Amino acid sequence: MTNEQYKTRWDERYRETDFAYGKTPNLFFKTHLDQLDKGSILMPADGEGRNGVYAAVTGWQVTSTDLSPEGKIKALQLAAEFHTTLTYVTGDLETLQFEPASFDAIGLIYAHFLPEKKSILHRQLDTYLKPGGTIIFEAFSKNHKANAQVGGPTEIAWLFSEDEIREDFSNYDILLLKEEVVGLEEGKYHMGQGTVLRFIGKKKPAL
Predict the structure, then answer these.
(1) Cα gap 110→196, rounded to integer Å
(2) Residue 47's closest CA among 9, 82, 84?
(3) In the chain, helix, strand, coil percent, each to 5?
(4) For residues 68 and 39, what is the distance between their CA atoms, to the nearest angstrom?
(5) H or E element: which one contains 192?
(6) Are 180 and 195 in contact (CB under 8 A)?
(7) 163 with 142: CB under 8 angstroms?
(8) Hey, which residues does 129 pair with through a beta bridge?
(9) Chain-wide mean pLDDT for the chain?
(10) Is 150 strand, coil or helix?
(11) Roughly what angle, to the nearest 10 degrees, separates helices 3-14 and 69-81?
């Protein structure tokens, strides 16, 4: 699958009237974000903005990104609904540039990148996080059984393992890393039992 094909898929989904994954934040993201001191947060693959908007409402300075301009339209609509603002940049994450060590946190919530790019993008994102900054990650694991209701990629290469996370974020103190079976109730496309990988990492100071 090319980037353009992937973009078209998400444009079609986000063009629907309803919010594909609802308007409320992912519970794991919310729980762990609420434990951090407020600052700046980068939200790659933020789609229709449910997580970025929540962060903005609670006092974070938010920069969201996504391939899909349709996602941006919905996200800005949601931000207006909640009387808040965020910066939203569209485009291929690989070509987007942010200042090194400029964010206090990164939220990676169901950010399933093209398999050949996911480790490259994880390492690129690491450069944007300040030493001592936190990554909050939840996505489907390689043991997830995708279907139309619960969602998730059908090809295992798109999914994540603990070993991949340890390798991609080797310069982090791992505060939490585990696979869990969870009940998802997130809009139309995340409903039912999913097997997910959850990771909280704190970036180690530079040597």
Answers:
(1) 9
(2) 9
(3) 30, 30, 40
(4) 26
(5) strand 190-203
(6) yes
(7) no
(8) 103
(9) 95
(10) coil
(11) 40
* DSSP states along 12-40: HHHTSSS-TT-SSPPHHHHHHHTTSPP-E
- Mapping DSSP onto H, E and C, the string for 118-174 reads HHHHHHHHHHHEEEEEEEEEEEEECCCCCECCCECCCCHHHCECHHHHHHHCCCEEE
Q: Contact 39/128 with Cβ under 8 angstroms? A: no
What is the rounded CA–CA span in Å between residue 102 and residue 120?
A: 19
Residues in the chain: 207
Grouping H, G, I as helix, E, B as strand and the rest as coil, residue 159 is coil
| Residue indicated by tokens 């295992």 | 156
Question: What tens digit of pLDDT does each residue of 15-63 get?
Answer: 999 999 999 999 999 999 999 999 999 999 999 999 999 999 999 999 9
Tokens encoding 55: 């962060």
Indicate the pTM of the whole model. Answer: 0.96
pLDDT digits (tens, 9 = 90+) for 129-139: 999 999 999 99
- Say how far apart CA 41 and CA 87 lie, in whole Å: 11
